Amino acid sequence: IRYGEETVARGAGGETHQIARDGRTSLTTQQGIPVSDDQNTLRAGERGPDLLEDFHFREKVFHFDHERIPERVVHARGFGAHGFFEAYEPLSDLTRADLFQRAGQRTEAFVRFSTVAGSKGSFDLARDVRGFAVKLYTREGNWDLVGNNIPVFFIQDAIKFPDVIHAAKPEPDRGFPQAQTAHDNFWDFASLMPESTHMLMWIMSDRAIPRSFRFMEGFGVHTFRFVNAQGRSTFVKFHWKPKQGMQSVVWNEAVKINGADPDFHRRDLWDAITQGAYPEWELGLQLFDDDFADRFAFDVLDPTKIIPEEELPVRRVGRLVLDRVVDNFFAETEQVAFCTQNVVPGIDFTNDPLLQGRNFSYLDTQLKRLGSPNFTRLPVNAPRCPVAHFQQDGHMATMNPSSRANYEPNSWSPEEGGPREDPVRGFTTYPSTDSGPKRRLRPESFADHYSQARQFYLSQAPVERRHIVDAFTFELSKCERPDIRARMVAGLRNVDDDLARTVADGLGLPALPDPLPPAREPVRDLAPSPALSIIAN
Ligand code: HEM
């Protein structure tokens, strides 16, 4: 394009560049004004003061000053990649969710892996839970499966989330330790919360120091619902099974890797994808009905419990492939916003109190983190299907309703009146019957905190058990208060006496403390589950 003497080039995406004399893109200000000198500020005289008039300098520094946004309050350190989900078979008997209707159907996906406790600049090989958040851009809106690499959680009720995170993050007075469980506050809280025992077993196991993101499982944790076109509901638990298998490092290796290359996990994913070794996971489902839920030894709404795969096999229904790295880390990995409340028609929540609390928390924090209610306009967050609503304005409103009407009902013509509700395709909530007095009591069915912790421990191969014992001993040895160490060992006595004794010996406790009162007697003896051991897998 010729503008007088100047040439403007059009790029592949239709964008235009001003071209300097040597054929390269001209450097411009944000206002598009070509810049002649980016090395020197505008000054009065040879050595004189800078001039306020220098709009290029002021704009450049102003923008730099505002580059940072708050890091995520949890899962701050993460790494994302693009890919797709491919369904193996239609699941229309179970769900009307569009991505599960046709064999071979592909749905675009974005995945972000993360650690939980460390800050954005922490190291990758921390002993920690790994986030496994998947955004699926379906033809009926975005479905976010915001999971972890461990199938249970520390707490049963979202009201305890700020506490567990405060206890795990650096201590408020001294600001350390960073990304480690080795401190008094964490063990103080954990030992006072027996419901965290099952999760602690996983955290102290090899699962918490994966070899790379590619070699770990993912879990939706909560029980969700599938709802089919006839309105029939089936409970579902989601699993991601790595086709690469599962691998972990040992603590000794983790410490060395952290020192030598704190970016080890993100580099591994980047290298694998850029070299064409696309990592894959299969989506697995545990499907069950009300009868199974009633018969099951634990409450299916309790997020500190699993449903053993031996009892309810995992059905593999599709694969997730990561085949493209991001173009820009900040634009995509930092600005992506996952939220448990993003479900599509055919998928619904249950009354798991942790899930219900999460549904509030994510959107709330993202408004703070991304600074505008319009963050769904960011390309990484934008649905790939058409979007039409009457929400408008706010910071960075780039797509206000274009029709005459910005409310409904309205009596304008279809062209001027904008979108209408869609009772046929629209999301409908599963009409479960929930009633009872308002109360804050934990249900009795959530009370057994030890049986599955024991089942997990006993399911581990001898070397994996040794690692668990070593991890408890090492991490608790960093806890300076003897009473906290003793209380934790007292809790472990309800899991396995040998485990408790070995940890107590390792810590040099003067005497083995009495077990903590068991919250409730185990429901029944549970067989160790081979599926829980990495080695058995
Ligand atoms: C972030 C998983 C419990 C609040 C995340 C992320 C994951 C995750 C994977 C990172 C998302 C990303 O990569 O951007 C889980 C799992 C939980 C759980 C599996 C339990 C089963 C909770 C609870 C709360 C909570 C109970 C609050 C009540 C948050 C917040 C963020 C977050 C505020 C930051 C979100 C952002 O800034 O975008 N969680 N979480 N989480 N989670 Fe959770």
UniProtKB/TrEMBL annotation:
Any one Gene Ontology molecular-function term assigned to this protein's record: catalase activity
Cofactor requirement: heme
Keyword Cytoplasm part of the UniProt annotation: no
Sorted UniProt keywords: Heme, Hydrogen peroxide, Iron, Metal-binding, Oxidoreductase, Peroxidase
Reaction catalysed by this enzyme: 2 H2O2 = O2 + 2 H2O
The Catalase core domain, residue ranges: 28-416
Superkingdom in the source lineage: Bacteria
EC number: 1.11.1.6
Record keyword Cell wall biogenesis/degradation present: no
Polar residues bias spans: 25-42, 399-413
Annotated region described as Disordered, given as residue ranges: 1-43, 396-440
UniProt family annotation: Belongs to the catalase family. HPII subfamily.
Role played: Decomposes hydrogen peroxide into water and oxygen; serves to protect cells from the toxic effects of hydrogen peroxide.
Stated name of the protein: Catalase
Residues of the full protein shown: 10 to 546 of 703
